[in-house]
Amino acid sequence: MSAPDLLRTVLYTVNNFLKEEKYKAALAVLKGFRNGAVYGAKIRAPHALVMTFLFRNGSLNDKMRAIAKATYTHSRNLACFVFTYKGLQALQEKLQGKSLQSHSFLAACVGGWLVFGENNNINSQINMYLLSRILFALARLAVEKGYIPQPKKDPFPLFATLVWGTVLWLFETYPHTLQPSLQSSMNYLYNDSNVWHDISDFLVYNKQRTPK
């Protein structure tokens, strides 16, 4: 058998295997791991690139290593979480013979504890990102279920007012309570813009404050 024929045979066998219904749950777990790894890399790589070159000091090699490490950590964690979540969901459904709403909550709780429970910069950013989305979703759900009345006016302007008022108050008064990346962004915008010596660091580049 020639190499092309062998390749066609292998692809035919694999494709037939992927169509087997009895293996669907297990294969979905593996596909979830793959999608988690790819999505994590796609999300983290550009973010790490921008934030590292904007705010991190050091050589080019140091910066590239930091970008690679952040991308790998995000990709690995998301892949492991999806693998754990989908695996536990499938296991619960198999044991109880049907799918329940509690299955997703319990599976995600276990996955969150195992994968995103370590307190580091990557996990902190991901968890806070999710928290903001959860609060929005719960507010919408409360209105949908009738627990709170439908606002007569768009509440978004009030929301924006409170968010920006609170975060700038914290930054000016208790900056140590904010996440390091947010502190860096705030310093660049509000503190470093108070410092310049000539036209070069007024328009061309940023001259950071000298630490006290």
TrEMBL record:
Signal peptide: none annotated. Its main location: membrane. Pfam families: Tim17. The keyword Membrane applies. GO terms for cellular component: peroxisomal membrane. It is found in: Peroxisome membrane. Keywords: Membrane, Peroxisome. It comes from the Eukaryota. Interacts with PEX19. Belongs to the peroxisomal membrane protein PXMP2/4 family. This is Peroxisomal membrane protein 4.
